[in-house]
Every structure is written in structure tokens, then in C-alpha cells.
């Protein structure tokens, strides 16, 4: 009898670990994006062209991509369920990855990559600021092909949202400082970093406001946008959901607090 009671108590302690808040078994959280390479592509040990090779992907091969940082993705087997870089196959340069296979891209006119190369040039056609009908403020960067820049956030007294576009020679005088009429985005600045041929676009944010930043890729227009909306309270930690556009590809999203 005592053994049965102990077994019942033990089951009551263990079962809640596997039960969701609604009393049903919780499904594992979805993560990563299934992406494809259009040509033979190297998998690196680190986020650097100087790091060693861990393997290669063949044209058309699929991987699960996540943890975008410094324009490099950690890549996993498509069926991998453990979201941790320790289980990654390695790292792949982000512009080598596409949301569809090459034959599906043929109709879109996306520039092909040179086989065996880790990098490919990209051209910036325009940088625009706009305020949406919902009151969101957005910066839109149009490219000559499909491209997802690296994005990161600087908090503190001078908060910024920064986009890094690598392997480009694009720079225009009018991009150096763009004065915008935003309440959250106060100024947009673009500078060229010769080391790495990087065009760095910085969005100077109002430090007195809390805001959510939501990247969106308009694939049909080869345009990458960052929409900023004001948050009424300090946003929770972790990535914010990415808006789903009819013709967009997933992009990393994040929330940031200008008051920190």
C-alpha cells in the first residue's frame, strides 16, 4: 500500500513537467527555417572564412538555419529537434542560403552564386523611410537580388538598430545622414566600412521609448524592411514573432527596450 502511495505521489510530481498550462501535452516549440543552397557550399567551424571546414552542402541540399549572427547562420540537419548550437553541423554564410530550391527561384531572376565561393556581391538600390497606416515606422532597403543583412541591436543611452550589408560597394552621399520625421526612429545613417566591404545602416532610436523591431523580407521586391512599433510595456525576453507576408521569407525578429 505504501509503495502504491509513493508511486502515485511520484507520478503527480513528474507529470506536470510534460503537461502544458491547458492540461494537454505541450508540443515542442518550432524553431529555425528550412533553407537551401543553390551551389556547392562550405560549412565552416566558426563564423569566419578563415575557420576550418566541417563539411560541404551540395546544390539543392536543405538545412535548418538559425542563430543568425555577423551574417552567418548556424545550420542543422532538417530533422534536428534540439535548438542549441552544440548540435549544429557548423556555420554557413547567410547569402548562400535561399528559402527555395534553385529551380523554384528561376522565375524570380535571383542572381546565381559562383560555385565554390563563400561570398557574392550585392548591390543596394535604395534606402527609404516610411510610416505605415498603422503608425509603424519602417526602414526599407532594396537590393538587386534576394539578400538578408545581419541585424543587431545596441541599447543604453543611445539605442540603435544596425544593419550590416557585406560584400557591397554601394554607397551614396544622400545615405550618409537621412533626417526622418519619426517618433521612434530619429535618424538613419549609412557608413561604408572598407574592411569587409560593409555598408552599415544605423537607425538612431529615441531612448525615451520602448519599441518592438520586426524584420520583414518582401521577396518579390528584393526588399528587406525593419518595422518599428511602440511597446506600451517592457517587452518580454526572447524573439518577437515575425510578421507573415503573402510573399515574404522568415527573418530573425527581436524586441528591444530603449530605456535600458
Keywords:
Immunoglobulin-like, 260 residues, 8% helix, mainly beta, 2 helices, 2 domains
Quick summary:
The chain is built from 2 helices and 18 strands. The protein has helices at 2-18, 102-105, and strands at 33-37, 41-44, 53-57, 62-69, 72-76, 90-93, 97-98, 124-131, 137-143, 150-154, 160-165, 178-179, 185-193, 198-205, 210-218, 223-230, 248-249, 254-257.
Output the CATH class name of the largest domain.
Mainly Beta
Order of helices and strands: HEEEEEEEHEEEEEEEEEEE
Number of helices: 2
Overall pLDDT level: 74
CATH architecture of the largest domain: Sandwich
CATH structural fold name of the largest domain: Immunoglobulin-like
The total number of structural domains is: 2
Number of strands: 18
Low-confidence stretches are 5-27, 105-118, 240-255
Largest sheet: 6 strands, antiparallel
Distance between the termini: 57 Å
The helix content, as a percent range, equals: under 10%
